[in-house]
Amino acid sequence: MTATILDGKAFAARVRDSVAAHVARLTEEKGITPGLAVVLVGKDPASQVYVTSKGKMTLEVGMASFEHRLAEDSSEQELLGLIDRLNADPAVHGILVQLPLPEHLDPDLVINAIDPAKDVDGFHVSNVGLLGTGQKGMVPCTPLGCLMMLRDHHGSLTGKEAVVIGRSNIVGKPMAQLLLGESCTVTTAHSRTRDLSEVVRRADILVAAVGRPEMVPGDWIKPGATVIDVGINRVAAPEKGEGRTRLVGDCHYESCAAVAGAITPVPGGVGPMTIACLLANTLTACCRANALPEPEGMIP
Ligand code: GUN
Question: pTM to 2 decimals?
Fold first, then answer.
């Protein structure tokens, strides 16, 4: 069997096109332009790349982008002051504070200072609670992107055995909640799970989000299963030359693709969906803030 490749890059481009069309209509008919503020504290190289890319794509869909780059040694008071101003700014519909924050700043305190209606990451306790109780809030972008791809491929997910490897607040936990909301039978596995291979073998749907390069081999995969690989791991690639690297997922791609029914590649799978969902969330937040109907089909 050769798995269907779930092309996240193409899917994400379609989502962004749809967001851009909604934004153009909002601006033309209502004079409203959705705005996204991204806050980066410090100089983490990966975060800098993400933040620049987010800003660029925000502008590409016709939204307003507000970028705030703060010094590594910024105080809690400074950061909370900025969040207060963004909360009160009617031109800002979405606020994202890039994680990880420098050691001296408490991420829970900072994230919970964001107005939940503007929390387009879906990390505020209030949004976490809304998701957990099946109420409407903001859904974290990466799991939302995974769910969109699963729904697109399968239609209904009802009754399927889903295994999520990883229990992070950003991916694993909200992913499990979303799959439960789709009436899957959900298992959340993690570093202390016994007989992980046996647990994974049950899965009709596997979501791997641990950040360990190629830890899931093909012989753990149930034939025909759908594999969603959230991992983005940079590893040495001596075959490409001295000091060169390549990106790999949490699943061993070739062996998993030989057994699975469908699989997301790395790169070009889940990754591009995250920013597309961030833009979709910002559009939704803007519609809600203006008591306008929400764009259809973008949010579970
Ligand atoms: N760092 C890694 N992933 C994310 C994300 O989805 N949102 C934010 N704010 N920071 C991150």
Answer: 0.97
Domain count for the chain, please give it.
Answer: 2
- Domain residues for the domain of 90 are 31-136+273-289
At 22, give phi and psi (nearest 5°).
-65, -45
How many whole angstroms from 47 Cα to the centroid of ligand 1? Answer: 8
Residues with CB under 6 A from ligand 1: 96-99, 121, 141-142, 170
Strands, E assignment, the chain: 4-5, 35-41, 64-70, 94-97, 161-165, 185-189, 205-208, 226-229, 233-236, 245-248, 262-263
Question: Do 132 and 214 lie in a common domain?
Answer: no
Mean pLDDT, rounded, for 280-300 = 90
136 is known as an active-site residue: no
- Please pick, among 9, 30, 77, 98, the residue that the annotation labels catalytic: 98
- Ligand 1 centroid–CA 7 distance in Å is 22
Q: Is-catalytic flag, 43?
A: no
User: Which pLDDT value is given to residue 296?
Assistant: 83
The confidence score (pLDDT) of residue 2 equals: 87
Instruction: Kindly state whether residue 13 falls inside one of the protein's structural domains.
Output: no
Active site residue 121: yes
Q: How many CB atoms sit inside 10 A of residue 134's CB?
A: 10
Q: Report the pLDDT averaged over residues 16-35.
A: 97
**Whole-number Å distance between alpha carbons of 86 and 80:** 10
Q: How far is CA 257 from CA 4, 221, 247, 252, in A?
A: 8, 9, 17, 8
Q: Are residues 147 and 187 in the same domain?
A: yes
